Amino acid sequence: MAVLLLELKEDRRGPLDRLEALLREIRRGASKRERLLMFKSLFTSWVDFELLRLMPLTENTLIYRVGDYLVLCHVSLSKRKRTKWLLIGINDDGKLFANWVSDSLKWQWEREVPKSEEELRRELGFDYNYNGEPLPPVEKPVRIRVQGDLVMSFRAVSADEVRAFFTDMIISALAERIIEAEERRLMEELVRGLTRELRLSVGGELRRDGRGWNDIWAFEVPVPYLNWGKRKPLREALKRVVKEMWSRIPGANDIVVLREVDVSHQHESGASLGSLVVSVALRAGPLEVVAEKFGLQELARRCVEEIRPVPTEVRVGNHIIRTLAYPRRISLAFENPITGNREWVDVALVHEWMSLLTLYAVDDIVIEHDEHGTRVVRVMKCEDKVYEVGFTTTDTGEHDGAIRNRIILERLAGLRR
Questions:
Q1: Strand-strand pairing, 96-100 and 84-90
Q2: How many whole angstroms separate alpha carbon 120 and alpha carbon 4?
Q3: To which H or E segment does residue 208 belong?
Q4: pLDDT tens for residues 215-243?
Q5: Per-residue pLDDT for 330 more than 90?
Q6: CA gap 415, 417 in Å, rounded
Q7: Do 125 and 102 contact (CB within 8 A), yes or no?
Q8: Degrees (nearest 5) of the Cα angle 38, 41, 47?
Q9: pLDDT tens for residues 17-63?
Q10: What is the mean pLDDT of residues 131-154?
Q11: 70 near 64, Cβ under 8 Å?
Q12: Alpha carbon 95 to its chain's center
């Protein structure tokens, strides 16, 4: 082993060049796999090195060099076994990393392996590696690999645009709470009308399925077992009564409109009792109408004036990200005009559907990792600009994390040295 380490130390080529040469030797049988051990200390972690050791190196293993990356592809002769893909690259600290590539990339690469590093980066989900220079206030989004497998999307937006976005998010959250309260008021009035005027017995609680704009509310009317001949007439009668009762409720269809009423029969096999399930589909009026009716614009504007950037810390995998950014979520109190109660509403100040972890930053971004150390991503500070940054990892897929877990657990179980 000492001879191997001395040989590696005296080799003046880069670590990726040396590894590529050795892998090609092992593939053609000119070297033994044991020689890979001299590269163990050159990997970011022992787990990355074990990923390499899992990769078969036979005549069916293809080795591609794409810029500062090695792409290994082992094509199985068995149709029941998948082709294996491994990506090896160089981290910011000069150490090697390995990723087991996901199926989504694998099938694309089987048709045509990327011929350039630019194409490979695009397949992995980023445009270029961060070079340490301050990021300019560009409006077109760019994606940069900032540390290890951490990718940051980046674009500059005007401060007015961010404030307008915050205002819209607050108005939407308040309107949603008001609409939910109005829907509940209307449905409770509907059930009270059925029980008081028609003396119907309603079982269970009101159930709501939806989120403020196109909701379906449901309740049950217990009935004994009904034969086929009675089910349809009773369903139609109850549906007609529900529509009539709705039209008599004060304020019905002002900001919440009745879309449809459906009645179904529910009965479990062998049971003597069943129920008629009443489903009431509602639709809320346009957001602008709700906001204007209850003066939500002014309330949201006052709230936005009080929002300031704060020291922020978030985590993506093992990366800890610190910067000065606007809060991602706030809580505000308002008097609900439907219930008359003072209520707290949580408001997300980012798009919750975004797959990225998004921040609106106004200062440099510090990234810390237990293996890669600390990296500072500098930005050009502008008074009228805010930087919308999102974080994710390179698109190597869930197989990489699953295989890493297996390697670690095998080590804990004594199955791997």
A1: antiparallel
A2: 32
A3: strand 203-209
A4: 899 999 888 877 777 888 988 999 999 99
A5: yes
A6: 7
A7: no
A8: 105
A9: 999 999 999 998 888 888 999 999 999 889 999 999 999 998 889 89
A10: 89
A11: yes
A12: 29
SS3 for 375?
strand
Of residues 316, 248, 243, the one with CA closest to residue 281: 243
Q: Which residue bears the tokens 């990997």?
A: 43
> Angle, nearest 10°, between helix axes 296-305 and 159-197?
140
Q: Of 91, 18, 23, 31, whose CA–CA distance to 53 is shortest?
A: 23
> Hey, which CATH number is domain 174-289, 3.40.109, 3.30.160, 3.40.50, 3.30.980?
3.30.980
- Is the Cβ–Cβ distance between 363 and 308 less than 8 Å? no
Please state the domain extents for the chain: 2-123+398-412, 174-289
Tokens 């092992």, residue?
Answer: 26
Instruction: Read off the amino acid at residue 387.
Output: Y
Query: What percentage of the chain has pLDDT greater than the value 70?
Result: 91
Q: Distance between CA atoms of 280 and 243, rounded to whole angstroms?
A: 9
- DSSP 8-state secondary structure symbol assigned to residue 202: P
Q: CA angle, corner 314, sides to 311 and 319, nearest 5?
A: 125
Sign of CA dihedral 139, 142, 146, 149: positive
Please, is 15 exposed, middle or buried when counting C-beta atoms within 10 Å of its C-beta (0-12, 13-18, 19+)? middle
DSSP for 310-343 reads: EEEEEEETTEEEEEEE--SEEEEEEE-TTT--EE
